[in-house]
Write a structure and sequence with these properties.
By secondary structure, the chain is an alpha+beta fold. It folds into 2 domains: 6-46, Roll (SH3 type barrels); 50-183, Nucleoside Triphosphate Pyrophosphohydrolase (Alpha-Beta Complex), CATH 3.90.79. The protein contains 3 helices and 10 strands. The chain has a 4-stranded mixed beta sheet, sandwiched between helices. It has a 3-stranded antiparallel beta sheet with strand order 1-2-3, with no helix packed on it. A hairpin with a 5-residue loop joins strand 2 and strand 3 (39-46). The longest helix has 15 residues, at 169-183.
Length: 190
């Protein structure tokens, strides 16, 4: 938690310059003043934000996707997710991504929480959503998007985390939320 006594930990931006501006990411190089007054350089990635969706089917299974991720050159098992478009509300992103990628629409949506997956070098924030009352209406995948949709129980998904098959941080975090809500340990936010 942030405390008003955190002043001895705060770094202050002196200047900021763009290093790279891409379609998805921007890289920045900032000159900062450390809490002790010394100068330092911070290179970081500006990210538009994203969502991850815990989509619960009526049969108790969750929707997952198998998708090739180029940066790591392998297929990953993950929950439906996607980048927030400019001026788009995160809930609208979640609804769009669930429909586009899996073909499902949800009757009920809840915002569960937020995660910051790369706090050491990025401002990326991922909003976690719960979706239920799913109805299949057909997918509308983006051009160049190839994935396989599968169903899996939370228990089986947690075993794949344990066994090292699911290594995606947003999926692991959202699965923790799902397990706590389904088990009744945590109440789902309204």
């Amino acid at each position: 938690m942030t405390d008003k006594g955190d002043g001895q930990l705060i770094e202050h931006t002196v200047s900021s310059e763009p290093v790279f501006d891409g379609k998805l990411l921007r890289v920045r190089r900032d000159q900062v003043r450390l809490p002790d007054g010394q100068p330092a350089v911070r290179e970081w990635i500006a990210h538009p934000g994203a969502v991850v969706i815990v989509a619960l089917l009526d049969n108790g299974q969750l929707l997952f996707e198998r998708q090739y991720r180029y940066a790591l050159h392998r297929v990953f098992l993950e929950l439906p997710a996607g980048k927030i478009d400019p001026n788009e509300h995160p809930l609208d992103t979640a609804k769009r991504e669930l429909r586009e990628e899996t073909g499902y629409q949800a009757k009920t949506w809840r915002h569960l929480g937020v995660m910051h997956p790369c706090i050491g070098y990025s401002d990326e924030k991922i909003e976690i959503f719960w979706a239920e009352g799913l109805v299949y209406v057909g997918h509308e995948r983006d051009h160049g998007e190839f994935l396989e949709v599968i169903e899996m129980s939370v228990a089986d998904a947690l075993l794949t985390v344990r066994d090292g098959e699911i290594t995606d941080a947003k999926t692991i975090t959202a699965l923790m939320w799902a397990e706590k809500i389904i088990s009744g340990t945590w109440a789902a936010p309204e």
